[in-house]
Amino acid sequence: MRSVSIKELLTGKKLLQEVTVNGWVRTFRSNRFIALNDGSCLSNIQCVVDFEKFEENILKQINTGAALKISGTLVESQGKGQNVEIQVNDIFVHGGADPETYPIQPKKHSLEFLREKAHLRVRTNTFSAVMRVRAALAFAIHEYFRNNGFYYFHSPIITGSDAEGAGEMFRVTTLDAKNPPLTEDGEVDHKEDFFGKETNLTVSGQLEAEAYAMALGKVYTFGPTFRAENSNTSRHLAEFWMIEPEMAFYDLDANMDLAEDFIKNVLSYVLENCKEDLVFLEKRLLDEEKTKPQAERSEMPLIEKLKFITENNFKRVTYTEAIEILRNSKPNKKKKFQYPINEWGADLQSEHERYLVEKHFKCPVILFDYPAKIKAFYMRLNEDGKTVRAMDILFPGIGEIVGGSQREERLDVLKEKMAALQIPEEELWWYLDLRKFGTAVHSGFGLGFERLVLFATGMGNIRDVIPFPRTPQNAEF
Ligand code: 4AD
Ligand code: MG
Questions:
Q1: What global pTM score does this model have?
Q2: DSSP letter at 83?
Q3: Is there a domain that residue 429 lies in?
Q4: What whole-number distance in Å separates Cα of residue 188 and Cα of residue 171?
Q5: What is the tally of structural domains in the chain?
């Protein structure tokens, strides 16, 4: 008999039919009620066992975590808490789970404890819900771009260029770390390395995406990105996934319009398609918030917060306006910011971003036209000569979720910019070519996928929304 998923059983019309399901035991009560879960949805199916029909040897293997195949009749449930249940005729134990050593017992585990069991934590309600929402978001992202005339473009993972110019890259090399070949000056000789030059894991697929946008029109990348920044925060990973659309003939306004529409659209998809998981995550969050001081609790339940985002416009504010707001803000005057805002040109820290979003505007904010000095070399210089066409989208509880810009399409201006930052032209000769041959206004942005998942699930730590997080001193699994 073909087995069906629990999701199908709970939503389909198979009453009084013989069914077979496969899954893992969540609980086994009174030697009679098995709660079985197969990951297809949050809910378990209740399987009612007449223990006189089964040998002791079978019953004693039905422990939390065991994998079973169960056949029986689907009937209307006698008890409360579920509509249907399976009256069990047959049980096959795929594999048991020793209750003495299986770590995921049916009780509340801390997220910290579960992080150390990343290979098993997806068997909990919280992590399975998060990972289903994550998968739904990924699907929605591809669907959105596909429906809007974008081509999915695969940017390289190994690269010879530092797109963000931040120098926080992971070296890729096959040289012998103990005994590398040296040049006459005693430096490591990368000419003898695998690629004949220094290479790293990419921090962004943007530069290559620009090349493709200048032929395919609208492209996007969606892939892993690596940053060796030593930031042990709840918002940073060393390996994260980024979505980077890049569009020919888009200026900054069109770029902002797209980013806003895109985010609203994918969150709407999740609201529509992940109801059961969101209801669960909302309740989890409410329980968690009860343990926090009043001032730190979020003002809206999760689903209301997601709807609020999809139904309201993001506030668009220039960097210069934002600095004025921050400079005159209470926390700045009372010296409550760790980094006080004194003058125009200061880089914004997450405390400032969160003040703007959570306290001042109380909605997502798009900040644009940043000082050139604090942004990457490729952003288009404004007429004022000191700001660039950059935009960051700031979200409540998250801070920066998107960073993007209109790109500098003028060859001479770009060359000047690179010279000032001592970026050698030889390194980016191909990027300069894009400005020599058929250059045009173009723009794009990068959305941190895990930050989006954080927001959509209401989780508090980015390590809990990616299956196997990589952070400083941590690459287990
Ligand atoms: O602002 P960033 O550095 O922008 C870029 O990389 C551009 N090349 C994007 C583009 O225009 N195509 O990064 C974009 C986003 C951030 O807003 C943030 O959401 C996320 O990537 N991000 C991280 N997420 C998790 N861990 C990290 N260490 C991250 N660094 C950036
Ligand atoms: Mg940024």
A1: 0.96
A2: S
A3: yes
A4: 13
A5: 2
For residue 13, the model assigns a pLDDT of 77
Residue 401 counted as domain residue = yes
* Long-range CB pairs of 90-95, under 8 A, 24+ apart, other chains included: 91/49, 91/54, 91/58, 91/62, 92/68, 93/58, 93/61, 93/62, 93/66, 93/67, 93/68, 94/22, 94/66, 94/67, 94/68, 94/69, 95/66, 95/67
What CATH number should be reported for the domain holding residue 89? 2.40.50.140
- Structural domain including 92 reads 6-103
**How far apart, in Å, do the first and last CA atoms of the chain sit?**
36
Whose C-alpha lies nearest to ligand 1, atom 24?
A: 448
Shared-domain flag, residues 93 and 127: no
Question: Is 158 found in the same domain as 16?
Answer: no
Decide if pLDDT at 148 tops 70. Answer: yes
Nearest bound ligand to the CA of residue 407: 1
Q: Categorize the per-residue pLDDT at 16 as very low, low, confident or very high, splitting at 50, 70 and 90.
A: confident
Q: Which residues line ligand 1 (CB under 6 A)?
A: 163-164, 204, 206, 227, 229, 236-237, 240, 242, 244, 400-405, 444-446, 448, 450-451
- How far away, in angstroms, is 400 Cα from ligand 1 center? 8
DSSP sequence for 119-183: TTGGGSHHHHHHHHHHHHHHHHHHHHHHHTTPEE----SEESS-TTSS----EE--S-SSS--B-
Q: How far apart are CA 415 and CA 428, in angstroms?
A: 10
Strands annotated E in 341-473: 365-371, 387-395, 399-406, 442-448
Site to substitute for ligand 1 among 207, 242, 474, most atoms within 8 A of C-beta: 242
pLDDT digit string (tens) for 283-314? 999 999 888 888 777 779 999 999 999 999 99
Report CA(449)–ligand 2 centroid distance (Å): 13
pLDDT confidence band for 1 (50 / 70 / 90): low
Q: Is residue 343 a part of any domain in this protein?
A: yes
